[in-house]
């Protein structure tokens, strides 16, 4: 049996689906407030027998603060895909994110001790990497530099990785995947699922670029790495680096919207200064931190060379990924009018 945490998220649901397609028995964690209807609906974007496959999922509510609850969830489980995480770049979410991403991961790994679990896949992020190689690319060897400013999300993922490496040193077979911004369908109001609504709603975009990857690639690669026992390593999963404005305009053109305009970095810096003085009065300004402004105005090439060479893998081009998921987003909107 396989346990997938965060199974209602944009990635977890696709990992669950791919495992079911491969004939695996899947136990999936959810919250009391989880929207399972959205998960089942999104399955139809990826398969023709969504209802049949969804019915095979063994859903379970788990308290990540309770090791005993986690131990019960792991009974009979041999493999774990840990996708559950809090994703936010708002300063007010820092403590919740640290607790969810670090403590939750630590407790799950403690629960794996003396259990039937043999392999553990942790979904991390490219946000944990600093520095570049001789070609100017960020790679798996670009270690986290504590002297460099980071978002709370990046810190939470870095320290969660440390928990995974500890478990690895103690004998658990682990693999860490570090995806870029995940493009997927469903979960439209959370995490990277908000991209399409944001690009549709706002006629502007940031001046920087991001490294993107399709959710189908991340799910397939994570499962393949586990099946091939490519453990005790980590792998960057990125298809391409694209300017944010390019993606915004691809989406807006398909939706019949006007071209988006770039927000100058100087304007964001002015907003950051205003936030320093008046952030307490205007909560939305609190997102304009130094780290966040740098993230949306910078250009960092992140390399998946290691993964491409080891698996001979060919990623879905970002333009194709956008078209596929945008079609699903449009279909979702029409169905909910």
Explain what you see.
With 337 residues, the protein is an alpha/beta fold. The chain has one domain (2-187, 210-241, 302-319): NAD(P)-binding Rossmann-like Domain (Rossmann fold, 3-Layer(aba) Sandwich). Helices cover 44% and strands 15% of the residues. The chain has helices at residues 12-21, 36-46, 50-54, 67-73, 94-112, 152-169, 195-201, 215-227, 244-254, 265-278, 290-297, 305-311, 318-335, and strands spanning 2-5, 26-30, 58-61, 79-82, 119-123, 173-179, 181-183, 204-205, 209-214, 233-237, 240-243, 261-262. The strands form three sheets. The chain has a seven-stranded parallel beta sheet, with helices on both faces. Helix 6 (152-169) links the parallel strand 5 and strand 6. The radius of gyration is 20 Å and the shape is globular. The relative contact order is 0.13. The model has no long low-confidence stretch (mean pLDDT 91).
Radius of gyration: 20 Å
The name of the CATH architecture is: 3-Layer(aba) Sandwich
Largest sheet: 7 strands, parallel
Q: Could you tell me the number of beta strands?
A: 12
Give the name of the CATH superfamily.
Answer: NAD(P)-binding Rossmann-like Domain
Structural class by secondary-structure content: alpha/beta
Task: Quickly count the domains.
Answer: 1
Write the CATH fold name: Rossmann fold
Distance between the termini: 39 Å
What level of helicity do the residues show? 40-55%
Question: How much of the polypeptide forms β-strand, as a percent range?
Answer: 15-25%
- What does the average pLDDT come to? 91
Using the alpha-carbon principal axes, give the shape.
Answer: globular
pLDDT below 50 for ≥5 consecutive residues: which ranges?
none
Spatial strand arrangement across the major sheet: 3-2-1-4-5-6-10
Q: SSE string, helix = H, strand = E?
A: EHEHHEHEHEHEEHEEHEEHEHHHH
Number of helices: 13
- Reading off the top of the CATH hierarchy, the class is best stated as Alpha Beta
């Amino acid at each position: 049996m396989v346990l997938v945490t965060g199974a209602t998220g944009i990635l977890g649901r696709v990992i669950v689906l791919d495992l079911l397609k491969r004939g695996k028995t899947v136990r999936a964690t959810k919250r009391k407030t989880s929207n399972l209807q959205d998960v089942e609906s999104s399955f139809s974007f990826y398969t023709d027998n969504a209802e049949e496959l969804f019915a095979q999922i063994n859903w379970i509510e788990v308290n990540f603060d309770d090791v005993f609850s986690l131990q019960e969830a792991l009974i009979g489980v041999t493999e774990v895909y840990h996708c559950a995480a809090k994703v936010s770049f708002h300063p007010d979410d820092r403590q919740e994110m640290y607790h969810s991403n670090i403590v939750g991961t630590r407790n799950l790994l403690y629960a794996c001790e003396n259990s039937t679990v043999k392999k553990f896949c942790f979904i991390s992020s490219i946000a944990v990497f600093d520095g570049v190689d001789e070609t100017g690319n960020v790679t798996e060897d670009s270690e986290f530099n504590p002297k460099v400013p980071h978002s709370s999300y990046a810190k939470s993922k870095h320290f969660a990785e440390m928990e995974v490496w500890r478990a690895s040193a103690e004998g658990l077979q682990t693999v860490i995947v570090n995806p870029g911004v995940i493009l997927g369908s469903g979960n439209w109001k959370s995490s990277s699922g908000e991209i399409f609504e944001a690009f549709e709603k706002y006629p502007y975009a940031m001046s920087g670029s991001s490294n993107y990857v399709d959710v189908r690639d991340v799910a397939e690669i994570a499962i393949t790495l586990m099946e091939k026992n490519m453990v005790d390593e980590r792998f960057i999963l990125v298809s391409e680096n694209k300017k944010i404005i390019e993606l915004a305009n691809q989406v807006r053109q398909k939706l019949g919207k006007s071209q988006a305009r770039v927000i100058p970095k100087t304007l964001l810096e002015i907003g950051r200064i205003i936030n320093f003085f008046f952030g307490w009065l205007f909560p939305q300004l609190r997102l304009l931190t130094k780290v966040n402004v740098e993230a949306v105005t910078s250009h960092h090439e992140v390399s998946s060379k290691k993964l491409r060479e080891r698996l001979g893998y060919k990623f879905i081009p970002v333009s194709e990924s956008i078209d596929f998921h945008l079609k699903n987003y449009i279909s979702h909107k029409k169905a909910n009018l």
